[in-house]
Specification:
Family: Belongs to the AAE transporter (TC 2.A.81) family.
Number of strands: 14
Membrane topology: Multi-pass membrane protein
InterPro entries: AAE_transporter (IPR050144), Asp_Ala_antiprt (IPR022457), RCK_C (IPR006037), RCK_C_sf (IPR036721), YidE_YbjL (IPR006512)
Distance between the termini: 45 Å
Strand order of the largest sheet: 5-4-6-3-7
Helix content: 55-70%
Transmembrane segments: 12-27, 34-52, 64-85, 92-114, 165-185, 382-402, 414-432, 444-466, 478-499, 542-564
Radius of gyration: 27 Å
Number of helices: 21
Subcellular location: Cell membrane
Length: 565
């Protein structure tokens, strides 16, 4: 054991990665719908390992990884955050903002009432409001208080303690609300999700366990029969009858490949390669002929699936139906949407689905058709091997400089800190990226890794540096903090739900629950909501309010430190 201890003490980064590995392993276990998650698991395991002592890691390393994490939060969330700032979304934005303010007021009020110190209050907020970033922004604010080294360390340890005790119910509470509110309001969430999908332009034939299939695209091959209604008619006749939901991409006639043209006549025995929506193929088979799988080994037919980031401001806020009408058939011909992803969450592809700048749209079609539409929509995401390190580096520099801005609140000098500074610079660069696609490209996968890994390293160091005092604080205040955490989690949600319903008039059940869990940054609860709706209808309101809540809850870290006596 001494050999293991001495090795870990001499190489504390081994201890850090051990805490991350065990933490993510523990975080995978499920209890019903609840999973602890890798970040909370890492913090708890780091606190446990830290009880042995002697594993302290430099605070500068901790601050660096937090800055990287929070910069990527801004970079990835910037497009959606700014896209949400419009009149039609005002009630959702106000609902999300007021939820964060309610959370702040409840945290500060309860903390003053019970007599918690600044660090414990910030930890209560981080866990009860499930916003891990508060640990970092509050910790930076504590560093600016001018306290003695030991006093500052104890206060930052209390942040970690408060978070670790309150986070579990902080995640469970919104899940309970997603189950309890429909009972209270006598809502059938699945039925309401069906109605909303129809309102957005979806099919009325959705059955239990299915997503609306209108977005699914396929290519099939048909041989024209002698009974086909399209004998001697043109390709345009066929495509017009199918309302452009199917496109003939290639024709083989008498063994020869022919380019599919609008005026090309269809003959018996012709082989047609048809691409389009799966829902339209059932009709096509009946009126064209037999679907075949053998059509000659020498036939070279390829199509492309292309990811496009929407950046055309003229299309921002438009529905898919409006976009099709605006662009016209000459530009949209032969192009089909396979999926739409916003902030890593997939949207339903329905006529009335609203598209925002920064959305990633997956299109299917021939290369020439995709090249044509790409110019109208936006740009292809950065290559997996390409990152604009010039903009990334300058963004971090600007973030650190913004972090030096300071002001007085309640007699306490508060600096934004590198965390909030990098959040602001990330937001701005992420937003500008949608306006200037060739600037500031960071591969989404790489950005997501930096965000996740940066937070894991940060909380791991927080836990290890907390050491034995963390355990003593848990013994002293554990039950009190747990009970306070329940109040911090539940009071804002209960009050805000009725405010949303009666004041902001958010009465659609699916939207009401999407706003509620989004305003809490509650990913586990969102997964639970998706299980109940069995389609993606909650996603637009969730992503919109999640982006707002993420930003403002992070800002509350130094505010709590300043407001607490």
């Amino acid at each position: 054991m001494d050999i293991i201890y001495n090795t870990l003490k001499n190489f504390p980064y081994l201890t850090l990665f051990l805490a991350i590995a065990i933490g993510y392993f523990v975080g995978k276990f499920k209890i019903g719908k609840f999973t602890l998650g890798g970040v909370a698991g890492t913090l708890i395991m780091a606190v446990v390992i830290g009880q042995v002592g002697g594993f302290e890691i430099s605070g500068e390393v901790k601050s660096l990884f937090f800055a990287l994490f929070i910069f990527m939060v801004g970079y990835l969330g910037g497009p959606q955050f700014f896209a949400s700032l419009k009149l039609s979304s005002l009630k959702f934005l106000l609902a999300a903002f007021s939820m964060t303010v309610l959370g702040l007021l409840v945290v500060v009020g309860l903390s003053i009432w019970v007599g918690l110190d600044k660090g414990m209050a910030a930890g209560l907020a981080a866990g009860g409001l499930t916003q891990s970033a508060i640990i970092g922004t509050a910790g930076e604010a504590i560093d600016k208080l001018g306290l003695a080294t030991e006093a500052a360390k104890i206060m930052k340890t209390n942040v970690a303690v408060g978070y670790s005790i309150t986070y579990i119910f902080g995640s469970i509470g919104p899940i309970l609300m997603v189950s309890f509110i429909p009972i209270l309001m006598k809502w059938d969430i699945r039925a309401e999700a069906k109605k909303l999908a129809v309102k957005l332009g979806g099919s009325k034939e959705m059955v239990e366990g299915e997503f609306d299939p209108i977005k699914r695209v396929d290519t099939r091959v048909f041989k024209i029969s002698k009974t086909s209604k399209y004998l001697s008619k043109t390709i345009q006749d066929f495509e017009t009858d199918l309302k452009s939901n199917l496109t003939v991409e290639l024709v083989i006639s008498d063994g020869k490949k022919l380019e599919s043209k609008a005026d090309l006549q269809i003959k018996e025995g012709d082989i047609l390669f048809v691409t389009g929506l799966i829902t339209a193929f059932s009709k096509a088979g009946n009126i064209l002929g037999e679907e075949i799988s053998e059509f000659g080994a020498n036939i070279d037919f390829t199509e492309e699936e292309r990811h496009i980031i929407l950046s055309n401001k003229k299309l921002h806020g438009k529905t898919l139906a409006e976009i099709r009408e605006k662009l016209g058939l000459t530009k949209t011909h032969g192009v089909y949407i396979n999926s739409i992803v916003r902030m890593s969450h997939e949207l339903s592809v329905l006529d009335n689905t609203e598209i925002h700048a920064g959305d990633e749209i997956t299109l299917v079609g021939k290369k020439k058709d995709l090249d044509r539409i790409e110019k109208e929509i936006g740009y292809k995401p950065t290559s997996i091997n390409s990152t604009d390190f010039i903009v990334f580096g300058l963004g971090m520099v600007i973030g650190y400089l913004i972090g030096e801005i300071n002001f007085d609140i309640n007699g306490t000098n508060v600096a934004l800190g590198s965390g909030l500074g990098c959040l602001v610079s990330g937001l701005i660069i992420g937003f500008l990226r949608t306006k200037h696609p060739k600037m500031g490209g960071i591969n989404v996968g790489a950005a997501s890794f930096i965000q996740t890994f940066g937070l894991a390293v940060f909380v791991g160091i927080v836990g290890l540096n907390a050491g034995a005092p963390a355990f003593q604080a848990i013994l002293k205040s554990g039950i009190t903090l747990f009970l306070l955490g329940i109040l911090v989690t539940m009071i804002p949600m209960i009050v805000q739900f009725f405010m949303n319903y009666y004041v902001f008039k958010i009465k659609n059940p699916v939207e009401a629950l999407g706003v509620l869990v989004g305003s809490k940054s509650a990913n586990p609860a969102f997964s639970s909501l998706l299980d109940k709706t069995q389609n993606a209808t909650p996603t637009p309101t969730f992503t919109m309010t999640y982006a707002v809540a993420n930003i403002f809850l992070t800002l509350w870290g130094p505010i709590i430190i300043a407001l607490m006596p």
